[in-house]
Amino acid sequence: MALGVIPFFKKLIFTSDGPLFFFTDSCIILGYAMIPCILLALGGNLVDGPGSSKLGLRTTAAIIFGRLLLVPPVGLGIVTLADKLGFLPAGDKMFRFVLLLQHSMPTSVLSGAVANLRGCGREAAAILFWVHIFAILSMAGWVTLYLNLLF
């Protein structure tokens, strides 16, 4: 951020005709390849199937229950409180919908990549698999509720 704030460094690194733009361009190219590489790593952890992790059925079910059924009502409470306190733009229902929707989404694939770096890739891949499968059902319910509340 310090480089972007100082105009001299910003022109030197972040403009396309700057002498150090190759560094920025290299980071952009690596960024494009990051998500496919993470998906390959997570897929490699699921080579034996999602049931090959050392987590038990109760632990997996508890994580799915917590992520898909307990977090969204907490998010609804937070967004409602923020609205009552005047922190949200007045009358912007789409903004509220996006805030509510982010609490209902399944866990990010990037969290699986971090778990993979920590040595828990197989377990994280199994959890991500099952959370995304069950999110198909829960997302339909939460989106319906949010739309009924907002519109």
Automatic annotation (TrEMBL):
One of its GO terms (cellular component) is endomembrane system. Keywords: Auxin signaling pathway, Membrane, Transmembrane, Transmembrane helix. The chain crosses the membrane at residues 20-43, 55-82, 94-115, 127-147. It is found in: Endomembrane system. It holds the Pfam family Mem_trans. It is a multi-pass membrane protein. Its main location: membrane. GO terms for biological process: auxin-activated signaling pathway; endoplasmic reticulum to cytosol auxin transport. This is Auxin efflux carrier component. The lineage of its organism: Eukaryota, Viridiplantae, Streptophyta, Embryophyta, Tracheophyta.
